[in-house]
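Dear colleagues,

For the upcoming journal club I promised to circulate an example of a predicted protein-ligand complex. I picked one with 3-isopropylmalic acid because it came up in last month's discussion. The inputs are reproduced below in full, followed by the predicted structure.
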Amino acid sequence: MKKNILVIPGDGIGPEVTTWGKAALEKIAEIFGHEFVFEEALMGHAAIEVTGEPLPDETLEKARQSDAILFGAIGHAKYDNDPSLKVRPEQGLLKIRKELGLFANLRPILLFDELLQASSIKPEILRGTDILFFRELTGDVYFGEKNRSEDRNTASDLMIYHRYEVERIAHKAYQAAQQRNKRLCSVDKANVLESSRLWRETVQEIAKQYPDVETEHMFIDNAAMQLIKNPKKFDVVLTANLFGDILTDEASQIAGSMGMLASASVGESTGFFEPIHGSAHDIAGKDLANPLASILSAALMLEIGFGLKEEAKLLVDTVDQVLKEGFRTHDIADQTTNRFKVLGTAEMGKLVLK
Amino acid sequence: MKKNILVIPGDGIGPEVTTWGKAALEKIAEIFGHEFVFEEALMGHAAIEVTGEPLPDETLEKARQSDAILFGAIGHAKYDNDPSLKVRPEQGLLKIRKELGLFANLRPILLFDELLQASSIKPEILRGTDILFFRELTGDVYFGEKNRSEDRNTASDLMIYHRYEVERIAHKAYQAAQQRNKRLCSVDKANVLESSRLWRETVQEIAKQYPDVETEHMFIDNAAMQLIKNPKKFDVVLTANLFGDILTDEASQIAGSMGMLASASVGESTGFFEPIHGSAHDIAGKDLANPLASILSAALMLEIGFGLKEEAKLLVDTVDQVLKEGFRTHDIADQTTNRFKVLGTAEMGKLVLK
Ligand SMILES: CC(C)[C@H](C(=O)O)[C@@H](O)C(=O)O
Ligand SMILES: CC(C)[C@H](C(=O)O)[C@@H](O)C(=O)O
């Protein structure tokens, strides 16, 4: 199989971890005899520094021509500390999601047995958890009109949904539920928000086309609680952009660490694969980041992007094996015991490749 | 001390639990020689059934004339299942918050040692946690303009903040932080939302007036994760209406159960005291609800509403004592051991009064 892959390292720990996601893809190509052709491009603060823009036209052009994109992370302390800056790294990520029509963000909560202890949640609560989030990615308050009054004393963002936006992601989520445990929980705030009422109404309609899937509707506040109280009760979770952002980060504690979770954004064309962690500028360049989420993002690319199940499985199994052998990066090491061999980013990356 | 207290039982388990919050206030009045005069009023589904409106004028009038309000819960399955209904119970709660100018919702995460085991989070992660949430309560996407297109295919809610709204709650939160551990974490989504950028800018300004308090800014997705990863690192958390709704429900797992958490809404006049749990219609009328959050709401009324610290402490200590003696309601009982004496709502209520 021949594929063109665009690598966008981005900001902070992005470049360090993406190195290993890319290396994993190269290794897989070698083992299975595929041809993966790589290109690189800039986005975020890294792109602003060079071109003045968070998403240069050239990057977007390359993205459109590629078969899949491996992305690192975005964001920089400078912008976080100064809310008045007009050009911001995150605009690059939002724009590429919109331009490529990546309306469905899939975030599987993959639970490695070996990491049950790394979570702040009790192992007996976690064991057996298997959740697949469908987060809507090109609508909501992320993309609605933004306003700042002239005196700068009033600011607003429009939370807005169109029925077709809810329908298309709902179909994807229901289809996935049919392949899994046939339960779907749709999360909204329909007791307060009109956009959530449209969301709920639409999901109720779509649900009728999937009578084999059991549907539940839950308010976001309750969901944020239930997710840690009893994660096992969830199978597929379907939710809006903002609520999905919050819930999936929270859910990373189920997997032991944010450093373990990958996500796939799909929609109209090219798939986009990235860790769910952020740019973590505080640890960037210190060889402390966990490269496993990037390697697992590569696995998602193989599976969801290219339909290469066996190849994806080899990567996931290798990660599992490395954890079984007691190797850990800092974020997933239990500092109170010395049962683990704690590795830096590069050592961990190399080990998985071996 | 003479005080007029309005009791609004509301919907679902509201009436069952509020009975005990009120009884606790009566008992305190008797012990300390205060005169508490009670009135009752309708709100939510309970009010719609009788008057057609979720907040009858009479209730609002009584609320304005009272010195404090003890509220139960709001909401009903009928409306949750039918997003198209125009008159909804929650509108009553939102309207009374707005009309009384209750812009600051204080949610202390009170951790009873005895309940460390009741949480899904590991006791060693929880121990020592002491968080006070300040949730903004009369702005945000809760109160911004709502719209539904004529063809009903597009729906929106305006997420909007004015600088003065952020300022007034920020001052309250900073003043509280000065009395506590002098750390304040402000939660927003300033990397994406304009309203959050106004929020962050404003908090940065106010922070300068409280140089003795250490300020941190955190994105909501990260906060949802950090809250369960390392709850001890938080002291005062300041956030917007929607984010506060989500984070405080999530934080209820720190306290072992939602059935244990009380909240105080204050602002321009009369204080409003309520459990943070919802109407839980699935268990309503079954003597299964936990009355402790209502009793602790009564304690907050005594302390924050009336400045009666000793009286409040007696209530909190009594709850603690009852837990120490091994008594539990269903939500906080560990079903796997029989170390606990599991009680119904009424038995638990009576026990605390004794
Ligand atoms: C960086 C930020 C804009 C982004 C988001 O909020 O979508 C990130 O948190 C994510 O979840 O991918
Ligand atoms: C019932 C609902 C409108 C309310 C809210 O979202 O504010 C509740 O969840 C709360 O937290 O008090």
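Two points we might discuss: Chain A has two domains: 1-112+255-354, 120-254. Chain A is about 40% helix and 20% strand.

See you all on Thursday,
B. R.
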